[in-house]
Write a structure and sequence with these properties.
Blueprint lengths: L11 E4 L7 H7 L5 E4 L5 H11 L3 E5 L8 H14 L3 E6 L1 H14 L3 E5 L10 E6 L2 E6 L7 E4 L9 H20 L5 H23 L4 H13 L8 H13 L3 H16 L4 H10 L4 H11 L13 H13 L10 H13 L5
Parallel strand pairs: 1-8, 2-3, 2-4, 4-5, 5-8
Antiparallel strand pairs: 6-7
The structure holds nicotinamide-adenine-dinucleotide (NAD).
Length: about 350
């Protein structure tokens, strides 16, 4: 066996149906008494219900979280944190809300309790992506990792099928990149593979029947399995470029790009991707595209309003300051990859 480094994630995980009822105890166990509840405008009513349930343990609700964690929204939330003298944040929602909680924690070191309601998986990473001046940048820091995550599959029953599909493919993208990450270790590989299996099995069931509680739990389990402890490569660089500079929707962009970036790296990371390729019928790129198509995922960047000329600028930005990738990156091949994803063709 090759040498490796493994650092266990110190986050406390509570997983299971109904476990969001343990929120008050989780806040108290952190030694906190003044929780600020965060959500998107869409989940404001749920956040207010949580605020009521927290009673004396909560000082307010900030329901202004938006996609890609814009710095001005973080600053508005920080103002409320200061005014209310909050001593922790409770993030209820998907990656956008978790992102806001992380951005606050990064600047204040306040503890975070996250109750995820999508499969984005952001709650188990020490990574914060934020947007300012049209560019998305990422930072990795121990203060960003949430202290407690409460996974309650009951709260994902309301996640619309389309979002369940794209959110699941978003999590699968993390797992695929985890398999060939330079800093992968035996544990991250085991978890990434079981995460891919969990989504491959649960997503088609959810599409058929969104109320399938067992499939919902399996998908949320798949989301947790990506612990985000290992690095990211080309796939994430392209998605960050498209999201940050062209404002494409986050999970949908991951869903479109994943089969193409996996196919791009298939040969260079053949050994690392072998077990995943087996799971998807022998071809990692083609197999992921077939799954995406069969569950009604978006398949083309065209659908997000991008025009062909945008692809030139996207190729420039994505190769300007590239992340490490198993296959060397050059502008011409990234432009071709983007063209295929724009047209929505099945990768080879
Ligand atoms: P999201 O958080 O933006 O949610 C999309 C919409 O769905 C929101 O309006 C939200 O309120 C609503 N929603 C969420 N759960 C729901 C539910 N159960 N029922 C009904 N509506 C629900 O979407 P997302 O895909 O979870 O997150 C995307 C964001 O997460 C991006 O900004 C991305 O950069 C970030 N992200 C970060 C990491 C990381 O490690 N830093 C990882 C993954 C995603």
């Amino acid at each position: 066996m090759k040498s490796f480094t493994y650092s266990g994630s110190p986050a406390r995980i509570l997983f299971g149906s109904g476990r969001s009822a343990e929120l008050n105890a989780a806040v108290e166990a952190l030694g906190c008494r003044r929780a600020l509840v965060l959500a998107t405008p869409h989940q404001k009513a749920d956040a207010e219900a949580l605020f009521e349930r927290l009673g004396a343990l909560s000082v307010g609700v900030f329901a202004g979280a938006v996609m890609h964690t814009p710095v001005d929204v973080t600053e508005a939330a920080l103002k409320i944190v200061r005014e209310t003298e909050a001593d922790c944040v409770v993030s209820l929602g998907g990656g956008s809300t978790t992102g806001l909680g992380k951005a606050i924690a990064y600047r204040t070191d306040l503890p975070q309790v996250v109750i995820p309601t999508t499969y984005a998986g952001s709650e188990v990473t020490p990574i914060l992506g934020q947007t300012e001046g049209g560019r998305k940048t990422t930072v990795r820091n121990a203060s960003i990792l949430p202290e407690v995550v409460i996974y309650d599959p009951d709260l994902t029953l309301s996640l619309p099928v389309g979002m369940s599909v794209t959110s699941g493919l978003n999590a699968m993208a993390h797992a695929v990149e985890g398999l060939y990450a330079r800093d992968r270790n035996p544990v991250s590989t085991l978890m990434a593979l079981d995460g891919l299996r969990a989504f491959k099995e649960s997503l088609p069931l959810l599409v058929k029947s969104p109320d399938n509680a067992a499939a919902r739990a399996e998908a949320l389990y798949g989301a947790w399995l990506w612990l985000g402890t290992v690095g990211m490569a080309l796939h994430h660089k392209i998605c960050h470029t498209l999201g940050g500079s062209f404002d494409t929707p986050h999970a949908e962009t991951h869903a479109v790009m994943l089969p193409h970036t996996a196919a791009f790296n298939a040969e260079a990371a053949q050994a690392e991707l072998a077990a995943a390729a087996d799971l998807f019928g022998g071809s990692i790129g083609g197999g992921l595209w077939d799954l995406a198509k069969s569950i009604g995922a978006p398949l083309s960047l065209k659908d997000f309003g991008l025009v062909e000329a945008d692809l030139d600028r996207a190729a420039d930005i994505a190769t300007e300051n590239p992340y490490w990738n198993p296959r060397p990156i050059d502008r011409a091949s990234i432009r071709i990859l983007l063209q295929k994803a724009w047209e929505g063709v099945r990768p080879d």
